[in-house]
Queue: 4 jobs
Job 1
Amino acid sequence: MDNSKWTFLQTFTPQFQAIASAKIEAAKLAPAPTQESFQDISVLLSKATKILADATGGIPTYDQRQYEIQLKAFERSIESLRASSAPKPKFAFKRKAPNPGAVATSTAQVAVAPTPTPAPEAPSSTSSNLVLSSQSHKYITRADLAAHAQQTDLSIFDLEHCVVDLLPPDASDAPDAKKHISISALHARNLTDCVLLLPTVEGSALLHDMTRCVIVVGCHQFRMHSSTKIDVLLAISSNPIIEDCKAIRFAQYPDIFKTPSERTQTLPTICVQDFSHIRATPSPNYSTMTDDDRVGLADALALAHRSRSSIDELSDVLLPK
Amino acid sequence: MGLLTIIRKNREKEKEMRLLFLGLDNAGKTTILKKLNGEDISSISPTLGFNIKTFAHGNYTLNIWDVGGQRTLRPYWRNYFEQTDALVWVVDSSDRARMQDCKQELHSLLTEDRLAGASLLVFANKQDLHGSMTDAEIRDALDLPSITTHRWRIWSCSAVTGANLVSGLDWVVNDVAGRLYYSTTTSPQAPPPPHAIPGTAN
């Protein structure tokens, strides 16, 4: 037993120190440590930690503690190196910039070198989405939208006294390709006294800070936050949720705005969940619209859609102030 | 044998990992999980409470906790921090308006003691949407490069198409495995150095 301990100690001590010094060199010699060299060092470090852990009981306690202290020190120096090399992309960019002018002969290298640097930057400016914002007293249709891909996600911000009508011109017509718009997700925030007439959104609808609005939409998921006095006509197969809302009424999406194929689908009854009222008792914050109200509202909206009525003519469909 | 060794050996036998899925509401946490598990994603309702999924991934058993992200539920996230090996932060890449909110929630999570040491995978979800932000934009919007307390990676993915979900999970599982079970991982880029000492058998 003693003998085996002794031989272990003899092999372990020099080898452990070999690993350790290799690590010190790696850490100190690399002037601009790359992600890979960090990985290598961390792998070495974890190897050494494991060896040391396995050697527990095989080496004197004093030595063990010394090695542990050394490992801790390496860990710290790696951490500080990692931290200091965090703004690496900028640094690399600056170093490479004077290269083309200074080294005129190595054209091949110059051509290759700049390409990886702008790569992460390039896509950052390209992505954009369809936004409809900061309007008042308008009837907004598909024609008013900015140029967009046929399939897009839509954000609507800061509207008041507006009707946003993105339904096909006539629901019974087969919409031709030009007019066709397919909304993949809807984000809306800060709408007051507005009517939204939207077709079916393929993804989810997320609404914040709405006041006195009528929302007609079909979607995969529906979430509404911090809103009051909203009528929601909804085609949905999951459970719509509200949070921090008051005086919300729900009803089914009007048949008249559905496409022929949507009319054939039967949807389950809407089962709202109020996250501000997670109790057995029914939530006081929302209700289901009566059939009379629902039919009356749908008729008024259909008329508005046909005749492009302004919001002032529609003010009676909004819930009272 | 030290206590740490005993604990490690014990966990090695189980080969289990605990992953915590968090993110704002509407990020797609539940959809990612269901897609990974091969379930139907067409009728998912916003999560009220939490879901647990357990499935095998490679050699490991993953216990995945998916907690709802509605504002009302966020104070309850802390109840799920214990024993978390990795945090998977899911971002709705099309939700430009709430990136600031998203950043704050993430950075406040990272100060939690009980999540110290957990690997962080940021899923930039909903890349199938045309107007969504790229992973580079989200990395900057969430100020990920400032994170020094956790090993992190951002992964663009789509729960609807399933793109990149498995590879993202691979990274986080390997990262955790490298930390917890390093004696058993065979990471391709790190062959054992020739002078390595074989572990003392006991």
Job 2
Amino acid sequence: MKVGMTVNGVGEQVDVEPRRTLADALREDLALTGTHLGCEHGVCGACTVLVDGQPVRACLMFAVQAEGASVVTVEGLAGVDGTLHPLQRAFSEHHGLQCGFCTSGMLMSALHLLRTEPNPGRERVREELAGNLCRCTGYAGIIDAVVAAAAELGTTLREP
Amino acid sequence: MSEPTTSSAGTSVRRKEDARLLTGNGRYVSDLTLPRMRHVAFLRSPLGHARIREVDTSRARAMPGVDAVVTAATPGFAGVALRAQSALPSYVETDQPVLAGEKARFSGEAVAAVVARDRYVAEDALELIDVEYDELPVTVCAWAPPQHPVHPQAPDNVLLERTFTAGDVDAAFDRADVVVERDLTTNRHGGNPIECRAGVARWEAADRRLTFWSGTQVPHIVRTVLAELLDLPESNVRVIAPDVGGGFGVKAVVYPEDLALCLLARQLPGVAVKWVEDRAEHLLAATHARDHRYRLRAGFTADGRLLALDADVTCNVGAYSVYPWTAGIEPLMAGGLLTGPYRLDDYRATVRGVATNTAPSGPYRGVARPASVFAMETIMDTAARRLGISTVDIRDRNLIRPEDVPYRMPSKLVDDSGQYGQCLARALELFGLDEFRAEQQRRRVARQPPIGMGVACYNELTGLGRAASAGPRMPFRTGHDACTVRVNPDGRVVVFSGVTSQGQGLETTVAQIVADGLGVGYDDVEVRFGDTTESLWGFGAFSSRQAVIGGGAANLAATAVKDKVLELAAGLLEAEPSDLALHDGEVSVAGQREPRLSLAEIARVAYLETHRLPDGIDPGLDATRFYDPIRGAFAAGAQVATVEIDRSTGQLRILAWVCVEDAGNVIHPKIVEGQIAGAIAQGIGGALYEHLVYDDAGNLSTGTLLDYLMPTSAEVPDLVIDHICEPAANPLGVRGVGEGGTLAPNAVLAGAVADALGIEIDDLPVTPAAVWKGLT
Amino acid sequence: MKPGRFEYLRAAGVAEAVRALVEAGGDGKLLAGGQSLVPLLSMRLSRPAVVVDINRIPDLAGIDGTDGTAPSVLRVGAMTRHAALVEQRSHPLLAEAARWIGHAAIRSRGTLGGSLAHADPAAELPAVAVATGAVAHVTGPDGERTVAADGLFDGPLMTALQEYEVLTAVDLPVPSRWGFAELARRHGDFALVLAVVAEVDGRWRIAVGGVAGTPQRLACAEALLNGDGATPAEVAEAAATEVRPGSDVHAPARYRQAITGELVRRALARADAEVMS
């Protein structure tokens, strides 16, 4: 089936079997391998992307369901000139990543959190990121990073 | 340009890895796409133990989009097996086949493989393979009577047994005022990096070259065994480990799937074959760990001195002896390190590795010690309660002290740290012991939810040299690593290191070491590793060895290059090398403020203007050095935590957690603390949540992440981490920090429950149901 | 872990979805939020020939009775996402229960109808439906019908919905007082046990999840609660004796049974204890 969607602001078309997950379409058909697969059954959160602004497990949505949708992946987070998004900068400054494999999903979940709750406290960040497993950091650096990014972004969170 | 600092070590410079990993530009094996790539899926045994009568692949083979279907009977596969070797007298050698042939020994063992257009089609084809099994009796528990031998070579399923002895244990027990006994079991769990295993293999028939991209921690070990089993010169095998999404030991094993991919590639010349393990496969067939039973008896004096320890340790090693570490990896580590940071002369421990119809056990962060530390610390807590002394005091009275170092442990390992008391004291200071006791008492009086405190001390053996070498008398010793430091003609530095990184930030740490050792800016150093054609022999990443051994080699190589730079500069400047210094990429003469030569100018001479080379100096500007610390560096550690318990549900809440470790000199503080924090989080996971459970028929009951529960950000508390910095006797004075954090949480959490409620935890994990049961 | 082949149909309306199910002859599956179905497809535990996507059917999502008046019954479209249930203010119990479901990326896709039709015995929304006496609206080849929540759940992952029926909306009575309590191994996990108490039309109802194949009404505990003079502790004790949970890797039966009492006690405490005194 032919599927048209906007990915990181660019119109894309893929021709996929209905069973192809959105995650596989992004990774295999559009070569956007920043979206990672860690469990393929909706638990680990590594494949989290934004679909029409909402966080979605890309392994639990079929590409055909994204027809007409606007998808934002980790590749869409930095500016076109390569300037890192404040969240990305904060992750680096606060050691919010080690192997980097959970990072894409973690960033997308954090982005959604800060858009809906611009100033979450540490405990809220802890709760809201619980849908993204990280095996390396013990989460400390991630929580530090999101809290710091929230402080920097204040209420002026920009669309990526 | 260079960062302005002259010394990089000790500062948390920006990680070199971050720019690509944060933007979705990481290069993981699972991201790799090559021309003519095909995808592999494995058919796995649904039974724990069964003879395989027949595998009919004809329907799968006929499916459109399928390139190949192979089984153990396929030419090229038949008879190929991994055989982990050890010179230990009791060790029974067994084979691990690439694909199960005669029988399947655990649920999840690969029986056949399909190569197809994509993974979807490959999995479609799996459904068309018909296998006839004859079920055999299943053994899943290593301390239950064996039902049917897993391997005919070991009728009792015991693959290895060894007794450690020191002194005269029976006489020591006679002198003891009290003897305490505990029977303990620990829970099987595993590494579960967020990126599962992955591999891509390609065979170039014309020049008989194999390239294997693999998310491995040990590319050189993989190369050696591939070359051996495929009968190729090592130089014809290239193993590349690019970005790897976590390892934790699980990826330090050579697996049958690795071999299967390479054999498949050889059958399909020019076609790259790719397999990305899915999570169900990982839970079923990547190595498990920590399924142990400890039967302990310990004798103490009335004032709490440990006199004697007698232990019987059984480790469930699963269906196969993993390559190259063998079935001995856990039992031998348990027996060798059981006494931990405590002074003891009289010791006896019999350890055994028992095969069962479960996934093989292998190295997992902390190897056996999260279990053995739990056992030892439980004995200390039990004795303290029996003797009416505090759990802190009993430890203080027995810890190896600075004046005892070098301390020869009863297992003959030599402890060079001795900072245990210091770690414990600092941890208790940060924890606030008096305030805790006051609050505990206040809650008791006020009948509020009880709190308890757990404490654990441990010694992490890191950076093992040839005398302490990881693994049980294997045909090779993992003591050394190599590093090449090369200054390019533009004065920039490239480093080829034998270590690998699965998130530990070694690109950054090694660059810091070389920048400091050579005298250049951090930004001018680029580090490459993980590719066997680029770096010299290196064992890779395991046993908290990268900073100690890889870092040591990097330091030696950088220093050697610096020596040559100064010698060359001395010739050009007609000065003595000893009067010159190299800082931030500039050579200056003692007593002069302005630098005289840049490294780029010197490098240009070394490579391009060799007519200017001083007499006796060869062209080029690089050096290769090997480093082996011979023994290793013990890292002392102590952790203390408070838990609150909900009496009505048995639920635990962690209120505070403190960890103090002796990391020696700290190169990158944030990376070091990140290692410790990540390790503690995995330790907490193992203590409270993670449990791989088999039913009696040999089926894994926890085969998805809905049932295998890893801690999330909501479960891991804020951690207070501090360091004691006692430099170790290696070039950088560092001690490994990768694993220590995992060692304590089992003991800390079980101890905290005992402190809060007086309930003795015998079996892990500490679930709410177990605590509740203890309360009723 | 990739799904087997299926035919995909994006239904434009309920009638088309029903027709597609009929044409699939029992081999069709409705795709709502996909948070439970897609893992089953990926693990190939579910192998439908046809997947009928009802995400784009207009009017299946949305909440009636949110016009500012306080409705006594809230009609919620089957495709209303959990995130919207959390956001709405008309049915605080529904919002609280939905907050406990998984994580943000689950709540943004998962739906009320999908949760009821999937019928996981440890899920939040089926228990809320039972506790409040909800009524499901269903459309099938023979037209529309309603199914009371008490009769909706037949067993684990089994409902009274017929093969070709589409759950279109749910009427959820808004309780005058309510309490919700849940215990899970980790934040966001399916419940070990959860308890919902709701006062609807002056009568208390109690439903617990995680202790049986379906959300379970607790008749004895309800009788005590609706009678005179029972203390919360007595109601909780009755609740615990009334359930016969099973064991699994997360908790043995005895534990589940014991904490059922505790969770009912907590739910009652939240509901407002004055009724008991």
Job 3
Amino acid sequence: MNALATAQRRTGSIRRYQPGRAADGGDAGKLSSNEHPLGPSPAAMKAICASAPEVHRYVTSEELRGAIAEQEGLDPGRVVVTNGSDELCYLTAMLTTGPGSPVILSEPCYQIDELVTRLHEAEPRYVPLKDGGHDLDAMAEASQGATLCWLPTPHNPTGRAVTAQDLESFLDRVSDGCVVVLDEAYRSFAGSDFVADTRELLDRHPNLLIQRTLSKAHGLAGLRVGYGLGPAGLIGMIDAAKPPFNVNVVALNAALASLRDPAWAEYGIDLVRKERERFEDFLTDRGIRHWPSEANFVTLTVEDTDRLQAELARDGVAVRDGDDLGLPGYLRVSIGRPPEMAVVRGAIERFQEHDNGGASQ
Amino acid sequence: MKVEASLLGQDLEIEIGTRELDEPGPGEVLVRVEWAGICGSDLHVFRSGTWVEYWPATLGHEVAGVVEAVGSEVAFSPGERVVLDSRLPCLDCPECAIDPDRCSQITFLGESRPGGFAGYCVVPERSVHRVPDGLALEDAVLAEPLAVVLHALAGIDAAPDSALVIGHGPVGALVQIELRRRFEDLEVDVAEPAERRAQLARALGARTTDAAPEDRDYGLVVDAAGYEGSLKDAVAAARHGGTVLVLAIDGRPSGLSGREIVESEVTLRGSNAFVDELPRAIELLAAEAGRYRPLVTGAVSLPELPETIRGQLASPDEVKVLVRP
């Protein structure tokens, strides 16, 4: 078999990732990619500017790795720094799956999880969501004989989260030979019931790999910084497999500055939670169905999503069409700054006033 | 024309209703309000009725919008995006004859004529400033309070050795942001008891305390709080020979003695509104809106305004709240 045929076989069944669209004019913005409403912290921006003279150097991620380990109360050998958490998805799939390996995914799933599963010719076992949340009983059952289980919580694209108690119970039931990737990209925005103690969880479950990112609460999406926490053995193998300088020096310095100045992240998280609560109350009052979200977005459904998108676009707001996310008939609205959310609420009011198409479902 | 507007009665009750707005006359501009900011002085008026010259009043002097129509002899055109100068000089006093920016009878939009907590407002052409392309109106609406802070900080060209801001409402927050923009390495402390406001101060790099420290440590102290005794606290926190900048409007006796000022040799300086800083404020926002955006902690529709005002009067935890008519 020639090389191109192999590449075609591996990529033939993947769905190309569709990035969120930017807003097109208007006064409000891009609410389609779950980005930070205010951007990076002043400290991170200062670090970014100060990094320019260093870019001729090859710089490792050891300092950031140490800072993360200290923050999490873990040995640095249980931390790996990656080029966004997506790189960790690629590395984990590369190391733990191969042609025909059974891999558990909720349906719909986070797109990258599915993409890397198919890229390695593994065999996806889809477990349909139950009311927007993971069906943990079915996933635990499906995990028997599987090599990998992707578990984003809060889940993207629905925003629903697994409670710490249910997570513990699930992990107890997952087959020992199956690595569970707990993707906590949106952990910071979740309520306390949905946040497990990281160290205890890792100590109890040697098949657990926790995936985090600085893209969301720290506003560094464009720099691509993520990390994994897990057992030293698995982390060591990921570390050995990853490119040696996988995160650039500007991103490393910004990440360090951001972690050392948590007040900015805390302020942004509170802002998002407040605006999310307000938006969910608004949707409930207007009779618009949505999943209760623990993330920095809310996913809602109306009868005519195209018309609502057009109404939002009139005010320069772009949201994510559920068709891109395996959720036809839904729209995922990232939580933006207060003025942006006021614009969104106004557009939804106009949408409902025009006719009752989305009012009561 | 009839427009939807917030109406403040003489009994200080707020409601949303309609008011008759005259068509723009010669030299006037009709502006469709896109965003209006709630200022601390608005809250003062909602609480006291001070300065209002007509009833029911439609307050709102921080306004960004779009020109809807113009009277004769006006250089603006419908569709232009604008922010408004809140000041309304009388154009009749001796000071105005020299420079309207120094008017001794000055009034403010909303207090002497209907302001921006409404779908539309009519203002003199001299109040209107164009918003450059690329600056969103939701950001441009911060130009007026930013101009107030630029005026207050005029003359502070060298970094003080240390700074304390008492009160982290919109003006205090803008003072912190401006000080950090000018003097990147200046450590700014903030005294603010309201948690959300204090949280913003920390996010922007300040150390915070609930109350003003009593140590005489600070080269610059800014009183942006205006609680009873805040001026005395500000002077007490200034180091010998330091500067105390008073931005808060508080009519109560401060309890400050001349001896405290003499012996500490502080420079006490007041600052009221602004003079010609609005264009510079627009420039700064156009260059770097993201620096100023964090202070916007809420945005509401016009029908939500009365409840929002009542909430803020009861518990001033928000920093800047915008209204979208």
Job 4
Amino acid sequence: MSEQAAVDRVGEATEPIDVRAVVKRFGALARPALDGATFVVRSGRRACLLGPNGAGKTTLIRILTGALAPTSGEARVFGATPGSAAWNVSRRRVGVVPQLPGMYRDLTAREYLELVRGVYERGDVDEAAKKLGLTRKHLRRSMAELSGGWQRRLTLAAALLCEPDLVVLDEPTVGLDPVAAREVIAMLREATAGRTALLCTHNLAEAEALCDDVVVLRDGKVVLDDSIDELRRRAPAHVAIGVREGAALAASALSELGLDAKPDGDRAVFLASDPEARLPPIVKALVERGLSVFECIATPPTLEELFLQAVQRDQDRAPKASVAEGEGQPS
Amino acid sequence: MSAFRTLLRKETVQLLRSKSALATATLLPSLLLLFAPLSLLATLVDVDQKGWVSVLPSTFQPPRGLVGMDRDSSVIARFMLASLVSMGGLVVPAVAASYTMVSERESRTLELLAALPVTIRQVLTAKLGVILAMSTAVTSAMVALDVAVLLRLQMASIGFALSLFPLLVCALLYSTASALLISLLARDFRTANQMGGALLGPTTVVAVWVLAFGPPGVPSVLVLAAIFLVAAALALYVALRVVTFERLLR
């Protein structure tokens, strides 16, 4: 393909992020930071990249921004790989908020935003600053003199200055107090609306508030890649049923219906998938048994629970796999 | 190209605002390339006027590059000036380059630049380019003054005087390239300083050895310039191909 054709292809209906079997090693003998990671973020979707410390999240983001090269595999951004003819065009469609960056003492906030505009070759500094609430007074100050919350707004303004099609956020609220974190999340919700976004975070509440899809990394591998709604639909909900006769009786009646119910305070609790379909006959059966049901609440699992389930499933699978690999081998 | 120009502008602004970098870029070369050579030349002129008396024993055989030093003060002038030019070229950009690169990593401001659509290579090239340009401008002006005085005193040929400029530029290139390598290898500014000292010390000894024991005059100066150039290419190769910029982002 000619260079021009490659450049022309950027903007065609290619996925904003397409990671295929990416392996990254720092040193030939080192454990891979990424070990065959594969996932796609589709246009207009907001995905969160979750994983414990050392899972490879920041390495993956650095590969996506072209700062690091994968050892093997491919990470495409709008169809282009770093170093290709189309990369410069693709990369300029991406705004990045780095994880807890340092701030220059000898550059003002305005000078930094001017630098960003110069590099992207587009954008309006005043407009971007205004959107994030940065006043002229803030812009005149040295970057390092701004408080943590304002520094984060500044990095957000820099990421959004070029009106990017894809926003990559690497732990945008880490190190902020709860009030500032809340403000930043509210700004992010507004900023990522209508855009494709990849949010790398430890904060599951933040991910839940901002994202549609979830990608869970563990030991450099993708162990879960799905939409949060779909995961919730598949995962059982927590059901709490209250009856006037007491939680013990309710739990006993539910057990007779084949449910693994336990009394918890004045309610009987159990897990049920597809609660909309399953709960009405259960409640009806309890009423038929003479119990006075006054409450039935189904709570979908939180993202934290889904995340822990995914990590647990992966942990359970790993020893089994290694046992299976060991079977049949001479001792 | 516009992105690179923007980076160059940023580095220039920051360098001009950095008091420590400016102090390094002016005080150190002033000492090595103005004060030391001009006072040496003044001393030699004074000695010549009073009559040159050799204190060396008659059996002493000077090294090849210093033959005639017992009867001609200009031999010492040329040797010392070439040595000081080498030292000035080696020391001036190394400190500033290591400082700006290592502090960028230590203060995590490199993360801000890595988030932009520029490569780490462009970021570091802009940094080193500005430091090299500023060091070259300042030191060349000083060496030009030394050369003018040397020629006025008829202590060197025009060929020798001109050969000091490629020597200076090659020393600056080697210093900048080794500073890049050190910045990639060093964990912090203190380690960078220790590594810089460990590298520049032996290099200075080699430079003086080449000037003292090499062929006298212009050839030894050009040989030394060539050694610096090869060493700069080697340091650059190791930095780019063996150590690589990825080390900064680990």
